[in-house]
Design brief:
Blueprint: E1 2-3, E2 10-16, H1 30-38, H2 49-56, E3 60-65, E4 70-76, H3 81-93, H4 99-117, H5 120-132, H6 146-151, H7 154-164, E5 170-176, H8 182-187, H9 190-197, E6 215-221, E7 227-235, H10 241-255, H11 261-269, E8 275-281, E9 287-295, H12 300-313, H13 321-337, H14 342-354, H15 373-380, E10 390-396
Parallel strand pairs: 1-5, 6-10
Antiparallel strand pairs: 2-4, 2-5, 3-4, 7-9, 7-10, 8-9
Amino acid sequence: MAPMPDAPLTCIDFWCKAGSSVERPGEEGLAHFLEHMVFKGSADLAAGEFDRKIEALGGSSNAATGFDDVHFHVLVPPNAAAEALGLLLNLVLSPALRAEAYATERSVVLEEIAQYRDQPDEQMVQQLLEACCPNHPYGRAILGFESSLQASDPEQMRAFHSRCYRGPNCCIAIAGAIPQGLQDMLGQSSLAQLNSEANEAADSADFQAINFQTGRSETHIARLESSRILMAWPLPSANNQAMVMGADLATTLFAEGRRSRLVQHLREELQIVESIEMDITVLEQGSLVMLEACCKEEQLEQVEKEIQHLLQASLSAVPQPHELKRANQLVSNGLCFSLEAPSQVAGLAGSQALWHRSQPLLAPLDHLSTWTGTRLQEDMLPLLQPEGSFTLIAKPLEVE
């Protein structure tokens, strides 16, 4: 629990190691589909009853499925937290998965896949992931395959739920105004009983490190508004927090704000890109750094050469103190600003607890001071060189 005494609301966030990466052959898309089906009711709640009751309490609910995990949260007034906790656990741990709702909701998910495939930016990123993470779940869209979903049935989903939603794979985080007695209620809840009954069970996550593929390819995408250069690099997993924070510093130094190296050189000075960004996606089986530059098609070659030159030049000069100070401040501010609301705090606390990284929420910042300019140059910047990347050149598809 993360008390925030001045917060007006309480967030209850249930986390489970049941993201798309634990799907087996034939289950592609089942993790996300199950997220939908959970809200269709439980053994004790009719379809839509959970939402109506949460709204009647003055609250709201939502859920999200990722590569590594899925989480369901409710945000309610403190005096409704105990009732909301019971409703949430009943819904998530005992979904009804009724046959009549299954076919209807499958159509909704299939339409979501169709909409996803109709988004040029989404397709561009998906092609990059498929190329650099072949034969790994991270290279597959979280929404899954239509063929697998069409062939699925409630019994298959029930087996997936039974395999994944068990004690060692689940946790709950509560943040905001914590009403008295809520912790005792949690200790007597169905989640506590699940942990007690399954404490010998193995973790459901079948981890495999990313077998990252370097290389280069080109694609044409319909309705893409501008040409793009996308680059991806592999990094250690989320558990290696020191390297994650180092990568955060490096990507900030390169491409966050007008004074960052890539933005200043390519957009402000040369004016050959519309935008350029570089971010780290932190994942449990291996993280990824991705760069995206948006420019006119006739400037692609020059933009790529300038990016490569700047990355390579970073190896020959230690980052200046003012650069490192600026990057440190931006990374620190980013984490602090992401912990202002109960839902944000519960989300980070839940994720950390689920993956056995229970610690003060700002503990990752302790690693920043270990990243001197020399260490960045020696241990991080060599990992972000052109030869270690996969590069995708995306151009608009000309329609006759």
